[in-house]
Structure formats: C-alpha cells, structure tokens
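The methods section describes the discrete structure representation at length, but only in general terms. The central task, working out the structure tokens from the amino acid sequence alone, is never made concrete. Nothing conveys this as quickly as seeing an actual entry. For illustration, here is how one protein appears when written out as sequence plus structure tokens:
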Amino acid sequence: MTGMPATELDQPHDLVGVGIGPFNLSLAALADGIHGGLATAFYEQRPAFNWHPGLLIEGSTLQVPFLADLVTLADPASPWTFLNYLRYRDRLFPFYFAERFHIQRAEYDAYCRWVSDNLSGLYFGHQIDAVRWNTERSLFEVDFTQLDAEGEAEALGRTYTRHIALGVGTEPYVPEPLRPLVDAPAAPVFHSADYLANRDRLLAAEHITVIGSGQSGAEVFLDLLRARPAGAEKIHWMARTEAFAPMEYSKLGLEHFTPDYTRYFHALPEPTRDALVPRQWQLHKGIDADTIAAIHDELYRRTLHGGWPDAVLTPGVCVRTAGRVATTMVELHLEHIQQATRSRLTTNAVVLATGYRERPLDRVLAGLEPYVLRDASGRPRIDDRFRLVLDRSVTGSVYVQNAERHTHGVGAPDLGLAAWRSASILNSLTGKEPYPLPQRTAFTSFGLERREAPRIPGQAPELTPLAQGI
C-alpha cells in the first residue's frame, strides 16, 4: 500500500513500525491476526518491498527451511504463511512434489511481496524524519515525508502512537581501504548487494576479484565461474578467514538459533557477550555445504582435459590498501595473516562480499536521545522483550528488530527467529498472550542453574546442574 494515511490526533496508533523488511513485515502480519485488532501503521522509504535484489542469483536458496517464513513458527494457522501463499498461487502440489525444504531466495522474495501487496496498514514511499516523545500526551509523535515515484518529497505528515517498532535493517559494509574505490568507480568495484545489477559489467572484465568468504562471496564466485570459459576464468577469490569454511549446520549447532539460546545470551554479562559474538562467526558467516560442493565440482569439471582452471582461492588474506592504476585497473595491496607476507594484485573488477552491518539508529532516535539508556560501549541497552531501555518518564515502548546482536546474540538477523520475536513483541505490547510461545525450544541446556544448596559454615555456595541436560 502506498497511499497517505490520515493523521487523526485523537486516535493514535497502538504501534507504528519504522521500516518494512522481513522482520517488521512479520510483525505486521502477526499483528493483523490479533483478535479485536490493533491500530498499526508501518512506514517504508522504498517504493515497494524488495529483499536483497542484487543477490537473487538463479538457484540460490535460503539457509533456513521454508517454515521460517513470516508467521508459521508463531501461528501456523495464519493466512500469511508461505504454504497459504503457494495455495493462493495454485502451486501447492508442485511444491509438494518438489520436496524442497530450503526454497529459493527469489521465491521467498516473491512470497514477502505477496504479503506486502495484500496486507493493510503498510505505507511505502514514506520516509520517517523524526521520532519524539510527547510528554503532554504520553505518546510518541512520528514525522514523515511522503515521496513521489522519483523519491522526491511530495507531502509532510505526522502521526501519534503508543509504541514504536524499529526495523530499519542492515546496510552493506565496505572495509575502509576499499571505500574510495566504491565512491569513485571507474573500474567496477561493487558490494555484492549490487551484484546482479552489475553482473554484465563484471563478466566483461578481463580479471575479477571476489573478496569475502561468506555465503554471498561463495555464490558470486560460483556464478562468475560458471559463466567464464574453461581455461580463461581469471577469477581470484580471497578472504580474511583462515579457510573457506562450512557453516555450522549440525542439529545441535542450530540450537544457537532458538529462543532458549537467545534468553541465555541476553542474561550473560556484557563483556562476555562482546567476546562471544566474534567467535561464533561460523554459525552465521560460513558457507553452506551444498555451495562448497558445487564450487569444488565446477573446478574439478574444468580439469577433465588436463590442466587447472585459472581460478585462485586464497583464504587468510587482508587488503591493507587499494588504489587505481590508469582507469581500468585496481591494485590491491595484500597481507597474508599467517605468513606475515605482503603482495600486490592487479585486477579489472572487484566484488566486495564483505557483509552487512546494523544500520545506525542515531538518526531516527535523535529526538529520543535524552531518554535512551546506553551500555558501557555507548550502545542502546535492550531488555529481554526487545525494548530499548528508556527513562522511566517514557511510558511507551520502542521495540527493535535486527539491531540487538550485542544483547541477544547471533540469532538477531536470523529469519528463523522472526516470527517468535514478533510474537514476543506483540505479547509484551498487549500485556496479554495472543501468541502462546513454547517454554522450551532446545535439547541443549546452555548454562547452569544457580541454586542455593544447604550451606556448611565456611564453605562456598554450590552450583547445582540443571535437572535436564548435564
């Protein structure tokens, strides 16, 4: 929906969402199912829903099962499930016979667009300019600009709400040494988020370099490799990580993406959480085993008639500096971390599969800054119900989605936790339980339960194991 919502000062919303990505779309879909209804409005600056359009490479799949749609894991009877989307499209039987547990990314994007096209209360082409706390009315006031088809300002508006949900998402991350190349691209240097839009330019380049060892880097490398002639591939794939490593996908490993682990992580001390997140990179930054196998199969196929493909794979390398040579070449100054050696690589094009970072909340929260409580590192504190910790004078709540990795762990950006988090937010917001949630979701007991044992004079308290799990 793109029309301008009416501003009715005497009828504030129960919830206003800022941003319409998968997570706030999940929240809107579940809010739609609450008996008695909630007055909601969700605003998005873009003209329509799209999800990583530059990485919808043919054949690429989600790394989570189709059950990790917008609503199923909280409400499998919702009209907004992926299975109901297939029914609406008359594709249930083809999907049944396809026997796919992991669907293609393009299909997930189409499903989300179907929800966004049919769900009421979504306003695309609306840029949120400011969020403030109105002390006289005990409401948040939200200023927005309605944009025309070209993205230019068309009208201004304001609405009021009891609660806010921030789902502004992430943004592509470009390492510092490479930013000047992206800002002034004479030779193509792009983040993988823009891969498909620049694929033809990349394929026309004599030599291509892909930087980044995650799933996106692997998929881009594989797609380029398949499109280049045997013996003349001229592709170099490099990364900082020590190996092109598989993602942790064991059954018990996946339990790090359960509500149980999220609650455990949130209860840890802040320094422990900060030390833990970087060590867990293989839980969410590795490559799925099928993609690794496909890359090896493609490389092996190119050796059938003798010789090796002109493709170089180098882990454990960082880019120290980078610059341009003439107008069509890029020079990367490299350092091998383990060898402590340095080298130079000249290339015609670079794809930066260097991941994403949480989009800063400072701009949208500027009007609330006096009320936001922060941790020792200056980050917003977020409680176990996904709410910003605000000064007690603010009686409304500001919920966050995918901006809480520092407090809730590696599951924050995971699609598999979207419906559970949205349901948790709605349960908190309503003060009821419109979506009953499971008390236990993992076989793993991630910590010890602290219980007071009978004390012996002079002896320290004893830690008792959990009844199950140890």
About this structure: The chain has a mean pLDDT of 92. The CA atoms of residues 29 and 310 lie 49 Å apart. The longest strand covers residues 153-166.
